[in-house]
């Protein structure tokens, strides 16, 4: 497999990985359709059971088509296209007047037109490029707001537009259209065209869930245990499912839900997982129930998942803080894995091979919000606390009241019930982004 960029590689990883899982689980969980192929570029439509799919663009080389041909041809379903704007429409005609209930929001060299030609229309999106004088229909990701008679639109933080639907119920009133967030920028690079993402707005004070990733043995579990011990009422651990055998001191339902492959495959098919991945030869996954259980207990959810999982969560409706933990050096990582004495030599070798890939993937633009180097444990833990806004040692940190973005319900549940709320439009985490790391990490 030849990839010309890490971003492309990451996408290929997801696709190929999912095709492999797809093969394993009987091709029922996800369909993957070859949508178009032109020159070196191929586009694939991915459909998920519990959230809207998206369009990926890969170089032909990135995919060993012969090997995966069968999988690719599986599950092509013409109906239920979850991504709009696969084809761009262009017009050289410059019409600066809004149509119907459209509102215009200028941003740089572009004007975002939101709304439709008629009152009570869908909130569709088109973008006017002032430089070329053309209209463009973007790829639209996320579940769209229902039609409305009228709305107002305001630019927020130069990267998203807030939309207030004037004739809608309170729980359907505020929406956000992401137009230039890191995720949108990454998707634009992948897809090669304009991308916008709809998110639903909800009033609330819930802090974002935390995704912690990094190579095996780097110390994720150690850091999370410390956090849970010091702040037991603040944080709750998302207990993953895994097909791996329990280690000596691991308890079912506490460290993992240890599961048979066939049971997990069925649950995946039934759409019970927010994400799942094949890691070091076993299947691991975060169930929607695991995340909701933490939310229902009134706690902030922590997910300890691998980079593939982080990528999938990043593309899912769950808006989280993404933290990548690196070792101070590869030698130290190997030492920690060996000293832990939980894996066989063969398993250690496999984990170390995968670590090299994960350390590279951790650098993918737009994937992680924070990088932590776990050299001295105490220092690393203090930095983690700073990132999470835990400057005092109280177990009830206060978060500024914010307007969150909520996302379409997973599995059809009500958005707030899923606990998957969430993107603050103030700068709670943004002003913590510049934490300097003293060491030179292995990543
Ligand atoms: N900063 C540190 N310095 C030295 N040893 C550490 C440090 N952090 C963690 N360790 C040790 O390294 C080993 C691996 O840590 P841990 O099990 O937390 O890693 P992990 O990232 O959760 O691994 P996995 O992904 O396999 O679950 C443990 O024995 C732990 O005590
Ligand atoms: N994608 C997911 N990765 C997960 C999940 N739970 C754990 N993990 C990752 O697996 C490796 C190995 O864990 P170990 O307990 O066998 O050492 C580690 O990197 C975890 O972060 C999950 O639900 N999804």
From TrEMBL:
Its EC number is 2.7.4.8. The keyword Coiled coil applies. Residues 207-389 form the Guanylate kinase-like domain. It is an enzyme of class 2 (transferase). Residues 330-358 form a coiled coil. Keywords: ATP-binding, Coiled coil, Kinase, Nucleotide-binding, Transferase. The keyword Ribosomal protein does not apply. InterPro entries: Gal_Oxase/kelch_b-propeller (IPR011043), GK/Ca_channel_bsu (IPR008145), Guanylate_kin-like_dom (IPR008144), Guanylate_kinase (IPR017665), Guanylate_kinase_CS (IPR020590), P-loop_NTPase (IPR027417). GO terms for cellular component: cytosol. Pfam families: Guanylate_kin. Belongs to the guanylate kinase family. This is Guanylate kinase 1. It comes from Stephania yunnanensis.
